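**User:**
My hope is that you can spare some time for a protein that puzzles me. This is the protein in question:
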Amino acid sequence: MAHQGASRLVDELATTLLGAPLPLSVRCWDGSESVVDGAPTLVVRNRRALRRLVHAPGELGLARAYVSGDLDVEGDLYAALSFPDDLPSRPALRLDRRTLVHLAGPLLRLGVLGPPPAPPPEEARLRGLHHSLRRDRSAISHHYDVGNDFYRLLLGPSLVYSCAYFPGPGATLEEAQEAKLDLVCRKLGLEPGMRLLDVGCGWGSLALHAAARYDVSVVGVTISAAQAELARRRIADAGLADRVEIRLQDYREVADGPFDAIASVGMAEHVGHAQLPAYASRLHALLAPGGRLLNHAIARGPAAGPDRPDPGSFLSRYVFPDGELQPLATHVGVLEEAGLEVVDVESLRRHYALTCRAWVRNLEEHWEEAVRASSPGRARVWRLYLAGSALAFERHRVGVNQVLAVRPGGEDRLPLRRPEWSRSG
């Protein structure tokens, strides 16, 4: 085993960042390597990978190196992402000045020191007031307007970009996504002639399902131009243009209520903690008395208090700029404070872990096509993000919940006993 040159420096840096030896094999651009039997291999392709880490110590530097292709992983990506959980304490991933001074000699000898490399073009740089209409449109465009062809490969024919609902361990992703769409419609109690508002309607899959299967009229709103364009085409192709309207519109701009039911699936994460009360109040105002709201959102644990996104995190810079996750109690609280009655809560955490793993398989099976449909960096962002998300759901770091609420007044159509939502019909 060779263990000199760049690989030795990588191990020293890793030990400093992690507080423990790196439990991965390492192979560097100069041919040096260190081997850990049975472990995935961290491939450091050039000096620029380490230079990124020197100038942005921690998660941001690692993210830039991976997205740019300067850093790679060979072998089981899930295992490579899992090892920090097995360390005595979760590392802070920070290099202090004293450590950098100590390593200055090796860094100089290997030609690592130099000006900071430009960030990959996939990195978001938003401007303006947080969660203003203009900035939110930019944030949503960064995530969703990356190419409908890319999302077709990633999500499959359903084009549903939220947690699926697996009827059993052998169910396909498509079966599970159809089951989730039907679950939402049943919880909302949709009946022919009703009017449904789909907030954050994506590529129109829920609107299509509700109109075709439940004979309702649907208004779907999104602030992604790419989503709106494809959703309208899908609806026209299905012959449902007379029952489904897709608008390029923020939910705050909807003014033609009331609606008999409102679905918000995978959208509340974009709202921001400070805006959640206004979000809940707006949906309450748009809902008819007796109408139902289903709020489906990812949630994090309550221990750390309100989320304040780290501007230097991988998720903030590359995946969901300005996205904020809140505890389940926060979602329930703001709905109740807005005057809604919460009548049912269901956790889908295990289902989202399965969903993310299925999306990673889709991406890996269509890798070259996905790269052509977006960019190498964008495909790497999504592979890292979804694999990490699968582990986060599996290890209880985050969850996802469907909260069903009713606006008091009007006809009370809820059954006296809790229905078995998982059963159709």
Remarks:
- The chain has 17 helices and eleven strands.
- The chain has a mean pLDDT of 89.
